[in-house]
Amino acid sequence: MEEKDKKEEMNPEETAEDTAGENVPETSEEETEPDTAEEAQTSDEDVPESGNEPENGGQSEKKGFFKKKEKKDKKDEQIAELTDKLKRQLAEFENFRNRTEREKTQMYAVGARDVIEKILPVVDNFERGLKSIPEEEKDGAVASGMDKIYKQLVAVLTDLGVTPIETVGQEFDPQLHNAVMHVEDEETGENMIVEEFQKGYKYKDAVLRHSMVKVAN
Fold it and tell me: Which of 51, 124, 126, 201 could form a disulfide with 150 if both were Cys (CB 3.0 to 4.6 A apart)?
């Protein structure tokens, strides 16, 4: 009985703590640790890293910038390529035009040369005919008509660029003259032309026909 009375006399707060300790189940440290680890993991996954977002954004912006620059470079390359092709075509056309002009000039020169060479014998015959007219008949109608035709023919040839080659009193030039006779003449200088047998002509800078001459030694 005395023991019962002692228990009753104990502090009611202490008895409440004992009963609470008996009723609450003990939780081990192993059970609580995984929960906190999972919570930490989920919190880490939910919270975005502040340092990664600007870097990714900067990289995407750089990629976009480089893509635009690449497109611009391709366009510039295409423009440069087309410009180069155009310049080449213009240069080829200019060369073709110049070549065509030269060919036309050469063809004209060759054609004119052939025609003039065929006219020269006619001029020679006029000169021989005029020389064969006696002095008393030179004032006649026939001689006057021949002389007029001859002068007109020479004027036409001169307009075309045909000029006679100078001979008598000039030094012999194998590029212009054809020596068919040599003569000893002390009064005349060496290698000088003393007589002309047939007149030579030049068409512009080219020799149409060499002069046939007599040269003093």
Answer: 126
Q: What is the mean pLDDT of residues 172-186?
A: 89
CA distance 215 to 169: 10
Close Cβ partners of 190 (under 8 Å, ≥ 6 residues apart): 216, 217
Q: What's 164-217's CATH class?
A: mainly beta
| pLDDT at residue 189, as a whole number | 79
How many CA atoms lie less than 13 Å away from 5 in the CB half-sphere?
2
What is the C-alpha separation between 73 and 131, in angstroms, rounded?
Answer: 85
Q: What are phi and psi of 178, to 5 degrees?
A: -125, 105
At 175, is the secondary structure helix, strand, or coil? coil
- Note the pTM of the prediction, 2 decimals: 0.53
Cα(196)–Cα(177) distance, rounded to whole angstroms? 10
Spatial contact of 149 and 184, defined as CB atoms under 8 Å apart: no
The mean pLDDT of 107-119, rounded to a whole number, is 87
> How many Cα atoms within 13 Å fall on the side-chain side of residue 110?
6
CB-count exposure of residue 153 (10 Å: 0-12, 13-18, 19+): middle
What local confidence, expressed as pLDDT, does residue 71 receive?
Answer: 53
Question: What pLDDT band is residue 73 in, cutting at 50, 70 and 90?
Answer: confident
pLDDT at 120: 93
